[in-house]
């Protein structure tokens, strides 16, 4: 929500300057961009340089490659697009990305690539700037409202779904300039100014207290902080809040260092997260914030102010641009693996290879069915349809293996999947309902062409029992049927969901060979990175894992029996990966040869699936 408020303020301040310059004939796009370089580049280059150096000392190879990409995209002001592209089920935790926050700077600068040109075009052609401003703002808002329930990640990072927030501030600035030009710039009555400012403050506070990560954002919910910021700014100095609170020396001082503080705070918090293995305590977080404030003040006083106000001429601009090119080259080299961090050894390379060992969708063709991507791996005349989540997607490499082992019997496979979503027709995502798209697409496929076999699978443990990502996953889904919405984390919701799954399988079994795919083990103890020991400040190594194994908890064993009973009543065949993964009740993290089996705490490696997942072959091959 802070970013949305910042967008409004940015649009108001910068657009106000541009419009005033256009009115007085002093508007220059070149001058505007020169000011932006002086304003943005000094602190940005310093922070990126700091992150690059510290990352070289403490990050693992895969982490360093990702940071290199983020340095490159940060310098190019396309961090939002880079983060959008890498988002997904296997995305790195936000708290572990030191340059995650640069997405908002990317959106802002993309806006200012377009907005000055639009002002210049309207002024020179005598078109009404109001009309252009409102048209673009409305289109952007409509795009935001349309995309958020369908793809909240796209709506969050895309520039065109965020421009309306900056244009809200721009519209306010244009209105203020027109009022001043017409001689009606008198401040609003005190009662009105106070009403506006406190109403705006209430909206911003409500957005902070009411909104959380479980709700799709931005969408209409972003209107709360945006409208709140507009009201506070519109109130002006006539309001008590603006005059005595927001204008006091402390708040003004924070405003002066706000940009370097924005740049410094998140990398320090993220590095604290990394150094503490994901669990920084309150003292560490407080210390990171305190250091960020100190560094922001030093950056403003010793770097930003001199470059902006003391050193005139074009030389500082050329130096800053040259430094940004060097940083971009360094980031690109890190991204491509040409520059390696300090922590490089065969043990860590094993973990890196395991974490990247994923091969879906690979080179499969994609067709859109009912607005959902369905992957196709063409082979024989018979067709196998696989429906589920990433615990179904992980078996795609077995198809590639069978193309070599039994090409004459291999079925064409269709994959209607969506990561993190249970493959139960009446279970929906309580945050937006997008999970149902995979099942709708599967139904459309079944109605449009002959399908020999159907495989239904998923991370059943994730949805019904708590070993991995428990509460976040279970509470996110509800069973919607007969006017009821039952949470899967309750006994009633669980039983109803399993009954719905049984009915779903029975309906499929009337026309197809149907398989219910049980789940593989999942446990935080299976995460390969957990066995990296040592200090990121000194040396790291992988402790022996050949003797590491887990025992399935009773809740998981009970769920497996319930799913077997569902399959029996529905008259479908069970595919069980457990005999291949566990022996004598224990499930090892590595094979007898010492190769890691899992890419993370709940997904199998592609290399393991390719060679060992023969338990799936009956569903992928035509009967003899």
Automatic annotation (TrEMBL):
Residues 2-300 form the Acyltransferase domain. GO terms for molecular function: acyltransferase activity, transferring groups other than amino-acyl groups. Residues 381-607 form the SGNH domain. Keywords: Membrane, Transmembrane, Transmembrane helix. GO terms for biological process: lipopolysaccharide biosynthetic process. GO terms for cellular component: membrane. InterPro entries: Acyl_transf_3_dom (IPR002656), Acyltransferase_3 (IPR050879), SGNH (IPR043968). The chain crosses the membrane at residues 40-59, 102-122, 129-148, 160-178, 190-210, 222-241, 250-271, 283-303, 315-339. The keyword Cytoplasm does not apply. It comes from the Bacteria. PANTHER family: ACETYLTRANSFERASE (PTHR23028), ACYL_TRANSF_3 DOMAIN-CONTAINING PROTEIN (PTHR23028:SF53). This is Peptidoglycan/LPS O-acetylase OafA/YrhL.
